[in-house]
Amino acid sequence: MKIVLASNNAGKLAELQAMLAPLGMDLVRQADLGIGEAEEPFRTFVENALAKARHASLMSGLPGVDTAFYATQFGYEKSDDNNVRALLEQMRDVDNRRAAMVSTLVALRSADDPEPLIAVGRVVGEITRERRGTGGFGFDPVMFIPEFGQ
Question: CA 118 to CA 49: how far, in whole Å?
Fold first, then answer.
């Protein structure tokens, strides 16, 4: 089964492909299908994820599964690297660095699916003062989770 990922994030694609491959699912980025990015006009992760999934599903005819634009409000181009740069700059003088990382996944059977599958994960940690570790994507380089020591 081919599924469209309503994101162009290579890190998300790699992680989800690894999880879905054993189930016989082929995950493809929306850009690989010539689909542009959807607007994210809402104020919640769920609403934006649902809007993106509906857009990808409608444009592709396939089932569909960010806070991707954070850096653009500070004059940077849209990218994971610039998001991290902007966050570190904005938090430069902030001592309370407690934060939560939220990930929202929406899966649809069609663009107008009245019963989407919505999964939300949340982990609490803190924003580091500089990038750490290797791998990951998004804000991973600056999110420290004490219980995992990374």
Answer: 9
Question: Per-residue pLDDT for 72 more than 50?
Answer: yes
- On whether the CB atoms of residues 101 and 93 are closer than 8 A, the answer is no
Question: For the whole model, what pTM was predicted?
Answer: 0.62
Spatial distance between the Cα atoms of 9 and 69, rounded to a whole number of angstroms:
12
Q: Which comes out higher in pLDDT, residue 96 or 134?
A: 96
In 3-state terms, what secondary structure has residue 28? strand
- Please write the tens of the pLDDT for every residue from 29-59: 899 989 999 998 988 888 888 899 899 988 8
Buried b (16+ CB within 10 A) or exposed e, 66-76: bebebbeeeeb
Alpha-carbon span 142 to 101, nearest angstrom: 11
Given a contact cutoff of 8 angstroms between Cβ atoms, the answer to whether 60 and 35 are in contact is yes
What is residue 123's DSSP assignment?
Answer: E
**Interacting residues of 13 by C-beta distance below 8 A, sequence separation 6+:** 5, 7, 27, 29
Number of Cβ atoms within 10 Å of the Cβ of 106:
25
Rounded Cα–Cα distance for residues 44 and 37 (Å): 17
